[in-house]
Amino acid sequence: MTSLPFHFLIAGGVAAIAAWLATVMRFSNARFIVAFMLFTAANGVRLSPSGNIGNLGWLTPFQLARSEVFLACGALLWVCLLTNLSRAAFNRLPALVWFLFIIGFYQGMLRFLHESPVAGVQSLVFTSLTIVPLAVTITSLIRQDDDAVPLVRMIMWANVLYLACCIVSLVLNPETVVVTRERRFMGLASQPVTASISLAMGCVGALWLLLHDPQWRYRWLWMALIGVNGILAVGTGSRTGILLMLVGLAAILYRRLGRIVLVAPIGAASVMLMLSIMQSWLDIDLAFARTTQLEDTRTRVWATLLEEGLANPIIGLGTGAHSTSGASESENSYLYGFAAFGIGMLSILLLFSFTAIVHGLNALRASMHVRAWRPRVDLALGLMGAYFVLTPLDGVMLSRVDQMMILLTLGASITTHFLAGVRSGEIPMDELPDILVWDEHDEHDEAAAGFASADGDADYAIR
Question: Residues 6 or more apart from 401 whose CB is under 8 A from it?
Answer without folding.
Answer: 40, 41, 66, 67, 70, 130
